[in-house]
Amino acid sequence: MGAACSSRTNAEASPPDAGAAVPPADPIALLQPYEAETRRAFDLAKPPSAETGLGADPWAVRRVAGGFVGILRGRAAIVLLDEELREVARLPAPRSPTGLAIAKNGEVLVVGELSPAIARYAVHGQALSALGESRVPGVLGLRDVAVSPAGAVWVVDERGGRVLRVTTTAAVASIAASVPVGHGATQVLATSKHVVVDTITDHTIVAIETDASGAPLGREPARLVNDGPLWGFDAKETDGGLVVVAGGVEDHPLDRHEGFFGYIDSFVHAFRVSGVQSRRVASVNVAEHGVVTPKAILLDAAVNDHLELLVTGYGSPQALRLTLEGGAPPTVAPVTLVPGTRSAERVGGRVVLADPLLDAWVLLDERGVHVVPVADAPPRAVASRLGEALFFTSLMGPSNATKGALSRFTCETCHFEGYVDGRTHHTGREDVHATTKPLVGLAGNRPYFSRALDPDLSTVAHAEFRVAGAGNPADPFFAVDPRDHVWLGELGIRETTSALELRRALLRFLTDFSHRPNPAALGRSSFTPQERAGAALFRERCESCHAARLSADDPVSRVAFEQWETMILSEAAPLVWGSAGYQKTGVLPYVHQDGARTPSLRRLYKKYPYLTNGSAHSLMQVLDTFATTPHATFHANAPPAADRLDARSRDALSSFLELL
User: Which of 263, 302, 407, 620 sees the fewest Cβ atoms within 10 Å?
Assistant: First the structure.
């Protein structure tokens, strides 16, 4: 977890409001028996997978004749919905589907982050049929897909940091163009003159010029840069060039000097692009109007300097209709909604939304908001669903202010989809900067935080409420009344939830929030020779700190080298590759006088940038600076006489690390 997000005491909590719940003498002690019970039921060797364990996860929705098609990330399925969002057909889709588009010929295209295939479907009335798949060579998974008005198909290779123009007519797709875009590429949109890609951890939207057929012109792309992640966008071509509107964090360095997370409000940023040039034409603090972590934005009109858009919030039950007119103050009209919007599709006066948080499809029309739960979704513990809501919405800090440095935010503001935001931020202590750490897979990764070394999730769960509301006058030990948050009824919560129960719910979710499978290992049973050589090198050079354990703080859970291959290539791949305690490896400045806790390397490909201070921007950079002496290991600032890796060893270790 992050370098300094937690505290073991409640001493810094703000003075309580009148009538606030009075915390018990030691809330952590009251939470620990629940954590022990939860942990006893948790199999560290076979942890749950977030691929299927967090619900159906409706991820995207698109209009088709007579209704809509949607994808269920948590069920590897495509569904056909009628006009009222009732499911009428379902078929298998590529694993963990995250991309959905309609081809020029009307076919439905689906891609998934755990599959290299583009699946094609046809809709005939209330029937859905599979037309086959095209495998894209050289990729492990595909994060998103888009089709240009001319019919050009583009897919995002998140892991390869590129966007590909492909054909889908054969069993093996041909790649007509490959354009590097950067780290954390998650969304693609193709207009008549551009293909536009959002790179979350590079904090950049890349706009690539294309010709009338949709082929790239080969020119330098325009880069729309923000100081922090941009979570989602929409774009339109206009007479004055391309217009892009994006939901993201405040364009300001994260500031912790005042003891809280400062300048991380949610904003909508509008850009105009002409050739390689781009300029920001507006930035609106939507958090002060109640919209937090906007991912789904609809740019309804873009004429000259006049922009009309609908902004939804993943982290809040509020949407906004915004009108931007040149440099004039925006016109803001609030719209009551539900939190969790991931994708939106407008059809006339109706808006249809995909909502993974509520595991539902949502219809917004003149009648109001209508939530349609996904059909036959298996039941899930209410506590875990509430914990997910606490993580992904502003429910942990419901009365936060947005004035000055104070911000209204969620855990996901700094941990996109539970992983990282690509930032190396100032911790508020001396000259110490640190990267964000993933909050996925915490059950086996004790202790927590690079500096604090919090011993258990009870400590973390209690402290996170203080962290969420720090700098605001509200008491962090509060209860939640569902009458104040009506959408909680969609999770099955209809009674007041006490402060202690809220912490139990967050603890339960953090236990359930495990990793998805690594696509590099799927369907395999043995290492390549290079990976095997890398495993041997890792055992020799790295495993004393990045231990092959099921629980980072338990040496007894270490797995013998002979079992590595089987466990790494299993679906769960449960080894943590971490240990407890501090290490000094030359990565300066240290977050603690004794160094920093050895981080987990599990699902390393989702973590960027690398090293505690963010100084490495690729695995090869990490390995280039790696060195050892008889008594120490270095990731930076190694003495000249230290033993370094040769090129063959670096290649072998890199191949092995990609599997973790």
Answer: 620
* Positive or negative: CA dihedral 26, 31, 35, 37: positive
Q: What's the pLDDT score for residue 326?
A: 86
Specify the DSSP class assigned to residue 636: S
| DSSP code for 73 | T
Compute the Cα dihedral for 184, 249, 144, 103 and give only its sign.
Answer: negative
Separation between Cα atoms, residue 6 and residue 28, nearest integer Å: 13
H or E element, residue 532: helix 529-541
Q: Which sign, positive or negative, has the C-alpha torsion 259, 265, 270, 271?
A: positive
CB 615 within 8 A of CB 596: no
The yes or no reply on domain 27-49+383-512 and CATH 1.10.760 is yes
CATH architecture observed for domain 529-657: Orthogonal Bundle (1.10)
**Whole-angstrom Cα distance, residue 204 to residue 251?**
12
Residue (of 496, 516, 552) closest to 57 by Cα position: 516
Kindly tell me the burial class for residue 305, based on how many C-beta atoms sit within 10 Å of its own C-beta (0-12, 13-18, 19 or more).
middle
Is the domain spanning 236-341 CATH 2.60.330? The answer is yes
State the residue for tokens 């500031």.
Answer: 255
Shared fold status for 27-49+383-512 and 529-657: yes
pTM for this entry: 0.95
Q: Retrieve residue 408's tokens.
A: 């209204």
Distance, CA of 31 to CA of 292 (rounded, Å): 29
**Ramachandran assignment for 117, one of left (phi > 0), alpha (psi -120 to 50 degrees), beta (any other):** beta
Of 316, 323, 320, which is closest to residue 341 (Cα–Cα)? 316
Q: What is the pLDDT of residue 24?
A: 76
Identify the pLDDT of residue 5: 58
Sheet holding 145-147, edge to edge: 145-147, 153-157, 162-166, 175-180
Q: For residue 34, what is the DSSP state?
A: H
What is the number of residues in the chain?
A: 660
- Dig out the tokens for 551 from the structure: 């629980």
Per domain, the residue ranges of the chain are: 27-49+383-512, 236-341, 529-657
Residue 51: both structure tokens together: 């691929």
Q: Which of 471, 466, 473, 470 has the alpha carbon at shortest distance from 503? A: 466
Within 24-117, residue ranges assigned H as helices are: 27-40
End-to-end CA distance of the chain: 18
Burial class of residue 29 in the structure, from the number of CB atoms within 10 Å of its CB (0-12 exposed, 13-18 middle, 19+ buried): exposed
Reference 413, options 425, 429, 403; nearest CA is: 425
Tens digit of each residue's pLDDT (9 = 90 or more) over 455-508: 999 999 999 999 999 999 999 999 999 999 999 999 999 999 999 999 999 999
Q: Supply the pLDDT for residue 16.
A: 36
Kindly report whether the peptide bond that precedes residue 447 is cis, defined as omega within 30 degrees of 0: yes
CA dist 616 and 609 (Å) reads 6
